[in-house]
Write a structure and sequence with these properties.
four-stranded mixed β-sheet; 29% helix; binds ligand EPZ
Amino acid sequence: MDRIRIVGGNKLHGVIPISGAKNAALPLMIASLLTDDTLTLENVPHLADVEQLIRILGNHGADISVNGRRERQGESYARTIHFTSRNIVSTTAPYELVSKMRASFWVIGPLLAREGKARVSLPGGCAIGTRPVDLFIEGLAALGANIEIDGGYVNATAPEGGLTGGRYVFPKVSVGATHVLMMAATLANGTTVIGNAAREPEVADLAKCLNAMGAKISGAGTGTITIEGVRSLSGARHRVLPDRIETGTYAMAVAMTGGDVILEDTDSSLLETALEAIRRTGAEISETNSGIRVVRNGAGIRPVDIVTDPFPGFPTDLQAQFMGLMTKSSGVSHITETIFENRFMHVQELARLGAKISLSGQTAKIEGVGRLKGAPVMATDLRASVSLVIAALAAEGETMVSRVYHLDRGFERLEEKLTRCGAHVERVSD
Ligand code: EPZ
């Protein structure tokens, strides 16, 4: 099993190309099941989660061809992928496939809308909390679906004549359930209004693509989304938006090590709250023609408190990385996690590098230390593992991160991107 070896201490200098967003690419790929025409997605990152979803979509009958052309020779490995689901050959998403990645549960929306039925295993994914599916079930029921849970599977059926538009106000913001309800409603009879919808940029990106396919969606990116159902959707070509979590991760890496890096092909408006928090730690962040520049010279890292929240708040997917950064701050900071109840597994691994962190409920208190020291650590989930990388980049000596398959789920060519900026990071295959 691969491990990543990091020797800390180098400042970062150079250019890092930001990939297409994993969390936009996954729902966009799933949306291809809504049409018998071809959906072409550009700027799809090459990640384990994308490969897994390709297998899942293939199981439903999607014909998938990958254009491996490098968009920027030697730098970015984004791919253009064509998805054609002429016929849906199976409306069942089996446990063996769905248990590996929670987002694969989302096929329930398109399958139900297009075929009138779906049998989808209850999901798996990162072990960061209980992550139930009640909001999906209530939302789809508001469109007239009949839903039963049996033997670990969710069985959903649409009434004769298909789903009907409805009104559903989420009692709690859910990105995935917003994606699913929006996709299902595109082919429902009549108009659907979703209240307290997730406002994440990935929801707006999905709506943009669905509209290019002929859907009639307005309000995506705000708390109220209105969808006028249409009879069918066509193919389209869509470019996946930049990965704001990858952008924030590398920005924090520079804030941690010091240096001067341009994050290319990204957009600061996707992560303003996180960038503001990074600025307050002492890094300078400015916009460039094609992305953002992050500089930290000399000055120490200031302690900053954050609380995670749905967009436009501080993203939970950057919480672990920010904690990595705070381990070397010049004072005491507090990080409160409000989205997932078990997203602090990086705490004990950061402690192995010398971090001083104590937990009280959903809040972590981080007492900054003058120096971190390299150690063997274990990746526990996707974002937790990259927080260890950030800390290791500023630790003295060698850190060996094991279980890097977590990193491969969401960070495209991490070691290459960091190495090009002067970091000492290498993959070790046993
Ligand atoms: C998406 O997960 C992201 N995944 C997550 O990123 C991200 O952390 C999360 O949104 C929050 O921003 C993808 O986009 C593929 P939610 P999702 O439904 O949609 C509760 C990463 O590292 N909830 O918005 O699964 C849930 O338990 C991943 O890339 C219910 O109670 O998250 C959580 O507490 C990890 N009932 C909260 O809502 C439900 O039916 C928000 O979860 C559904 C969710």
